[in-house]
Amino acid sequence: MDDLIFTNASILTENGIIKGSLAVKDGKITAVGQVSGQGAKRTVNVGGKLIAPGLVDLHVHFREPGFTQKEDFLTGTRAAAAGGVTTVVDEPNNSPVTNSHETIEGKRWIIEGKAYVDYMLQMAVYADGLDEIKKAREAGIIAFPVFDELGDRPTGMENTGVLYEALKRIKEVDGLALLNCRESDLVNKTMNGLKESGRNTLADYMDHFPHVAESLGGAKRILLAHDAGVRAHFREVSTAETVQMIRLMKGYMGKITAEVRPDHLFLNYDNTKNLGPYAQQWTPLRTKADSDALWEALNDGTVNVIASDHATHAEEEKKRGADNIWKSPPGLPAIESMLSLLLTAVNEGRLGLERLFECASTNPAKVIGLYPRKGTIKVGSDADLVVIDREKESVIR
């Protein structure tokens, strides 16, 4: 006997929508479409609503340990569950930074029993900690974000030779390198010039990260990753130039996976210019033309993952930027609203329903090595499901 059967459902599978039922036992999907047998302990008639695979979010900042005044693992994963996200990959910029097998184990101990959804952790790579890559991989870590700077000090990855060595080390352990398209020297030089000139508005913040710094940083990292032979995933793609660069490089380098954030799809400077620090992101919002290019890239396969980059801050921290944008930290909450926004885009004809879940569920699961356990509705897959009423309307405030 199954534990649970959903009846009268429209079930989104990789082969299209199936009308019928879905059965679950011991947390696994046991039947899709036609369900036979002795019934179930519980039956739920979903009234024709859509059942889709839960989202797999490759990019969240849940702030624990060290910054629980902003958010903790309990509230972060609760927001994920409320938003239809059933698996998250949590970033390492905690305090202490998760950059060794010891800090990984410490973080696991702290967050144990606090999660409403499944989760994976990452290990940040530092120049003086390259030997930790192998130790972390042996401890079950797959993903290794390689930042130029993190926490209160540079990582050493701004040095191209060190970055290349790190990528080769990740390749040796069959890990996944997570790379931001960012040339930090150019970003920091531009930002310092703005600060010295007394430019401190949201518009000035938008200017601190030039488009060329993203496409240059991305191109360098794609070339290095390709030569190192490492599996690499590129994050926070935000400009039309970077999209075109990835499109061209895919043509002769083969598979490149890249992600976009929902705020870069839906927001731009023109529709947020009065929001001050509440529209301030680490990779800033761009122009409407950039957003249009990202939608095109999602639909033509140039970009194949959507991830929230959920990053909350305390209200008092954001308020500091009202008169001087440099005094507030960048980051926005996004995990609870991401799916609703994307479904709105489906209703408006900007994105296909199947493509939405391909980019937000199936492809992320493949990137992180969880497919087909996660990211799809198949017999044997985890019953990580979201039931969607596509007629319901709500307002994000």
Walk me through the structure:
This protein is of the alpha/beta class and 397 residues long. The protein has helices spanning 73-82, 101-111, 132-138, 160-172, 184-196, 202-207, 211-228, 240-253, 262-266, 269-272, 288-300, 315-319, 338-347, 353-368, and strands at 2-13, 16-25, 28-33, 40-45, 50-53, 55-61, 85-90, 118-121, 143-146, 149-150, 153-154, 176-180, 231-235, 257-260, 305-306, 310-311, 385-388. It folds into two domains: 2-49 and 382-388, Roll (Urease, subunit C, domain 1), CATH 2.30.40; 53-368, TIM Barrel (Alpha-Beta Barrel), CATH 3.20.20.140. Helix content is 37%, strand content 21%. The strands form four sheets. Strands 1, 2, 3, 4, 5 and 17 form a six-stranded mixed sheet that branches. The longest helix has 18 residues, at 211-228. The model has no long low-confidence stretch (mean pLDDT 96).
Average predicted confidence as pLDDT: 96
Determine the N-to-C terminus distance. Answer: 44 Å
The number of domains: 2
Poorly predicted regions: none
Using the alpha-carbon principal axes, give the shape: globular
